[in-house]
Every structure is written in C-alpha cells, then in structure tokens.
Amino acid sequence: GSHGAGHLSETLTPLVVWGAGVNYPQKVTSQFFEDSFLKEWKLENLKRLDVNQADIAPLMASLIGVPFPLNSVGTLPLEYLNNSAHFKAESIFTNAVQILEQFKVKMYQKKETTLSFLFTPFKPLSDSEQINFLKKARLYIQQQKYDEAVSLCKTLINLALEGLSYYHTYDRLFLGLSIAMGFAGWTTYVILMIIKTYTDLTKTVRINNKESTVLFYGFTFVGMLIAFFLLIQTCPWTYYVYCLLPVPVWYAVVKELPIIQDLAANLLSLHVGQSIGFLLVCTLGIEILVFSFFYRSTLTVGLLVFAGWPVITQLWIQAKTTALVWTLLCMLLAVFPLMPVVGREPNIPLVIATGLLTLFISCFALTSVCKSENKFRNNEDLKLHFCQMLSIALSTYIVSSTHYSLKNKQGLPVLNQMISWMTLVSSLVLPLLSPTFLFQRLFSILLSLMSTYLLLSTGYEALFPLVLSGLMFMWINMEQEAVQHYGLSLKTKLAGFNFAYATDITQFRQLHLDDIRRSFFFVFFIVTAFFGTGNIASVNSFDPTSVYCFLTVFSPYMMGGLLVLKVVIPFVLVSCAFEAIQVTTQLSSKSLFLIVLVISDIMALHFFFLVKDYGSWLDIGTSISHYVLVMSLTIFMMLMNGMAQLLTTQRLEFPRRIKHHS
C-alpha cells in the first residue's frame, strides 16, 4: 500500500491494556473478525475488544482518575474497566455530558452567526430532548438500573456526535450551491463565446445601452444584497469570494441574451431525437472520463468504443486500411488500463524487446521515406535518423547492462550513467534538427522521447508510448478522412505537409459539430496518457527502480524530476499529434481549447462534489488530487500545446560549409 492508505494492515494497531482497574481477559468459544490476527497471535479463545483511536483518551483518563479531555470525541470502552456497575454508569454519563457540551458550544456558535429565521437546529437533540435524556439517565442511575443508563448514555453520545458533524458542515450545501452556480455560469459563458466567435449559428446582435444599464444596476444590487447578508452574519472572507463570484459571471452571460435567443431558436428547429441523442453521447463521454479517475478499466471501454468509431460514422468505406489499423491499435492500447499498476517487479526483457521493436519500426520508416517522393533533403537528415536509431540501441543496451550490474551488486557503471544523462539532454535537441515535414518531424520526436522513456522503464510500460504513438499517427490520418467525409475542407496531402508553413494559415474555418468530438478525443487521450500505466497512488508511491539508469543514491528532488519527465512524455506525444490535427484540419487552437475548457469544467464540477473529508488520508488526498488535476487540466494543456508548437515548427540550422569551385 501507499503512505496513508486505508488498508487494514496499515490502520489496525494492536492495543494492550493492563494494570490496576483493568478487566481480566474473557474466554470465548468463537468470535468473527475479517482479519487473521487472532489466529496468528494464537489468541482465538480470548475475547477481542476493538476500539476507535479516539476512544483511548477517555479510557486513559478514566484509569488514572482525571477529567475527560475537553475536546475528546471518544466513547469510553466500558468492557476494559474492572469496576462496579455504578462506577461504569457514572463514567459513561460524564462522558455523555462532556460530548454534549461540545455540541452545545458548536450549536451556540452557529446560532450566533446565522439569522434567526434561517437557523435550522439539529432536531434529534433539541433543548427539551437534551434535558429529557439527562433526567432519564440520572433517574436510571438512582434506581440502580445501570444497564439502561449505559444504553441511554451511549445513544446520547451518538446523537451528540451526529449533531457536531451537522453543525460542522452546516454551510456546506449553501457554499456548494454557490460554487456550482459559479461553475455553471462560467461554462455557459465559454459556450456562448465559442458559438459567438467560432460558429455562424447566431447573428451578432448587441444588447442596447438602456437594457445593458438596467442589467448592470440589477446585478450590482444583487451583489450588494449578498455582501450585506454575509456581513450581518459575520462570515469569513472566503464566503464573500464563493458567493460573489457567480454575480459578474452570470452578468456576462445575461448580457449575451440575443445570442441565447438565437441559439434557442436554432435548437428548437432541430430534430428532438437528434438533440437528445447528442446530449446523451456528450454526458456518457464525460462520465467515462470521470469514472476513469477511479477505475482505469473505464478507459478500456472508451477505447473499444473508439475502435468502432469508423464503422459508426461510415468512415471505413472511404479508407478501409486506415480504419482497420486504427481499430487494431485502439484495441491494443485498451489492454494497458487492464494491466496492474507499474510496480516494483522489473521485467527488463520486455523493455529490451520494446527497444528492438522500436529499432525495427525505425528501419521500416527509413525505407518507406526513401522510397517515397518525399526523400531526405540531404545527408544531414539521414545522419540524424541514424543517430536517433543509435540512441535507441544504446538506451536498450544500458537498461540491460545497468540492471545486470545492480543485480550482481556491482552498482551503476559510470559510463552507463554518463550516456543516460547525455541521451536525456540530446532527446530535447535532436527533434529540432530534423525536417519539419509532418511525419518526419513527429517520428523524430517519438524516437528522441522513446530513447529517454526506455531508460526510465522497468516493465510493460515501455511499450505504452510506442502503441500510443502508433494510434496518434492513425488519428492524424483518420481526421483527414473525417474532414473530407463532412466536406469541411480539402483533404491535405500529409506526406508533403510542412509544419514550418502551417503557421501562415490565417484563414481558419468555422467550428463544426465534429470538432467537439475532436476535442473530446484529445482530452480522452490525455487522460489515457496519465492513467494508461498508473494512477495517482502509483505516482505518490515513488518507485526508485525507474531511475536506476540515472542515479542510485537517494535524491528525492532529482528522482521526482525524472519521474515527472516519465509521466510527461506520453502527454507530449498526444499534444504533438493534436497540434498536427489542428493545422491539417485548418482549426484555430483557441477554439479547440475553449471546448476543452468546457469539458474540463464539467468534469471539475463532478470532482468538486466527490471531494471527501472522511476515510483514510489516501482517500481524502486522492479525492482532492482528482479535483486539482482537472482544474489545472486546461493550463497544463496550454503548456503542452506551447511545447508541441515549439517541437513541431522550430528547426535548428547548423552553418554549412560553402564549397569553392576553381
């Protein structure tokens, strides 16, 4: 397990209590527990009494005869006490009063900061109910009905703890709705901006000045009303942020009322079945993305649906071979999320096999480029390709050599370490020396990143970037078929397409419904790049085996940096493919990123309501990590897009020798 996980082997702690005032062990014939500790410890015939961690404080207080800690929320475990029934009843009564006092303080604090007509008390423990409980318990003790008194006090403790939780989370619904309103407003505004700027669905009609002024004053009044309402309740400053943020966002939305009216008229003219079908497909797509954060196997379902995409849209009719390869690669990639998370058991022969497979693919690509009309322009390009192939061969050898050396307790060879670091540095520069023709540049990026990824691999994950890249190459081809299928633009001849001149395209086409699918594919592949071979827990577990080719001395920051690089490489491959799709389908990257923003915001709203404040530290941390990951998804994708543009469009030119002729 990982640090702070909720597994029984990590959360169960043996508790041994002995000495004055402690009960003797009780013999039993049978008892049932899910774990096998009793059997291991040979204590099956003695009664086991499990307690919560918080219950130990009142137990210790009772044994040494001091008052219960003021803020303790533990229940006194009476089975541990060797004392009279009267003492036990009095002790649990004191415990109940102590927890009830905390409940009263919490209720008073909340009552003080809430308007009287809005305050909703915890009904099971009203003032009259509290008095009734205490009177009854005291009466039972006086009448020597100790068992009834103990039972009643335990009920009171449970209700007081429920009440404490109720007042602790009293504003949760109100704040949650405020944040949800902000999310909904922002997402609506982005959708309107996409429709207004990048489609021809609406006529650009501006709202008149009089209506605009009325709207402004109306929303200003609402904002002031909310601020006044929070002020008289002496709310913290964070409440003002949560509650006031939706006001300007919704003002911006309502300002675009003519666009909303135009859009509504367009939607009403559509076939109802088609509209509902489209909404269902969008909802299902986003739910698959959300579920993939919890269950990696959900990505397999998504990839199998992607495999059937050419058949569903009839694209396979015009490009049978491309569609078939796409389907096969989707099915191959769908295997990775079903495999266990990359663990500590290295499988070096698989990494070596991947290196050899990459070399074989490189040779095949080299021969196909030489045969095509788009040959290498000069010997330098050919030398570069051989240099990258040599880098792959070296990486494969170093992985094998290093793990053999470590296995024989000979340490990391210095030469291996030097070559590993040189490979890492060169992998960032070599792609920039290659020609900017689409497939040649993308293949150069793959070879460079693959040499580094091999050095950081320990098992089946080495194959992942290779299969992912294959699918990305097919995706670029499939999108060309889709563009032609829908008649959006002329089919680009990909072999001769040059990234260097792609930035000169000033005439971007308008968005089509199919572009939503394109953006969704991008988000899905980005999520697959992250969860394909691991999850958040596996990244947190920080397995040092991956970095043994670079260093064996523990250095958390260096190891962390290398681990992040390993996680980022699949993202770069997906981003470069998406960059190629943007320029070859004549799409503005801004419009596609706005669609991605909408998808990530809807996902973030899901994760906002899935954030936990109970369970193990790992459960709580993972739920927060999911929310933060999705919230930062758009920023991260923009960085990836910037890197992809740099890797695809820029070229480093070395000064060449000028030949002098006599």
Automatic annotation (TrEMBL):
<keyword id="KW-1133">Transmembrane helix</keyword>
<feature type="transmembrane region" description="Helical">
    <location>
        <begin position="173"/>
        <end position="194"/>
    </location>
</feature>
<comment type="pathway">
    <text>Glycolipid biosynthesis; glycosylphosphatidylinositol-anchor biosynthesis.</text>
</comment>
<feature type="transmembrane region" description="Helical">
    <location>
        <begin position="214"/>
        <end position="231"/>
    </location>
</feature>
<feature type="domain" description="GPI ethanolamine phosphate transferase 1 C-terminal">
    <location>
        <begin position="162"/>
        <end position="616"/>
    </location>
</feature>
<comment type="similarity">
    <text>Belongs to the PIGG/PIGN/PIGO family. PIGN subfamily.</text>
</comment>
<keyword id="KW-0472">Membrane</keyword>
<feature type="transmembrane region" description="Helical">
    <location>
        <begin position="275"/>
        <end position="295"/>
    </location>
</feature>
<feature type="transmembrane region" description="Helical">
    <location>
        <begin position="237"/>
        <end position="254"/>
    </location>
</feature>
<dbReference type="Pfam" id="PF04987">
    <property type="entry name" value="PigN"/>
</dbReference>
<dbReference type="GO" id="GO:0005789">
    <property type="term" value="C:endoplasmic reticulum membrane"/>
</dbReference>
<dbReference type="InterPro" id="IPR007070">
    <property type="entry name" value="GPI_EtnP_transferase_1"/>
</dbReference>
<feature type="transmembrane region" description="Helical">
    <location>
        <begin position="557"/>
        <end position="580"/>
    </location>
</feature>
<dbReference type="GO" id="GO:0051377">
    <property type="term" value="F:mannose-ethanolamine phosphotransferase activity"/>
</dbReference>
<feature type="transmembrane region" description="Helical">
    <location>
        <begin position="412"/>
        <end position="433"/>
    </location>
</feature>
<keyword id="KW-0812">Transmembrane</keyword>
<comment type="function">
    <text>Ethanolamine phosphate transferase involved in glycosylphosphatidylinositol-anchor biosynthesis. Transfers ethanolamine phosphate to the first alpha-1,4-linked mannose of the glycosylphosphatidylinositol precursor of GPI-anchor.</text>
</comment>
<feature type="transmembrane region" description="Helical">
    <location>
        <begin position="462"/>
        <end position="478"/>
    </location>
</feature>
<keyword id="KW-0808">Transferase</keyword>
<feature type="transmembrane region" description="Helical">
    <location>
        <begin position="348"/>
        <end position="370"/>
    </location>
</feature>
<dbReference type="InterPro" id="IPR017850">
    <property type="entry name" value="Alkaline_phosphatase_core_sf"/>
</dbReference>
<dbReference type="GO" id="GO:0006506">
    <property type="term" value="P:GPI anchor biosynthetic process"/>
</dbReference>
<dbReference type="InterPro" id="IPR017852">
    <property type="entry name" value="GPI_EtnP_transferase_1_C"/>
</dbReference>
<feature type="transmembrane region" description="Helical">
    <location>
        <begin position="301"/>
        <end position="317"/>
    </location>
</feature>
<feature type="transmembrane region" description="Helical">
    <location>
        <begin position="519"/>
        <end position="537"/>
    </location>
</feature>
<feature type="transmembrane region" description="Helical">
    <location>
        <begin position="624"/>
        <end position="647"/>
    </location>
</feature>
<protein>
    <recommendedName>
        <fullName>GPI ethanolamine phosphate transferase 1</fullName>
        <ecNumber>2.-.-.-</ecNumber>
    </recommendedName>
</protein>
<keyword id="KW-0256">Endoplasmic reticulum</keyword>
<keyword id="KW-0337">GPI-anchor biosynthesis</keyword>
<feature type="transmembrane region" description="Helical">
    <location>
        <begin position="324"/>
        <end position="342"/>
    </location>
</feature>
<feature type="transmembrane region" description="Helical">
    <location>
        <begin position="592"/>
        <end position="612"/>
    </location>
</feature>
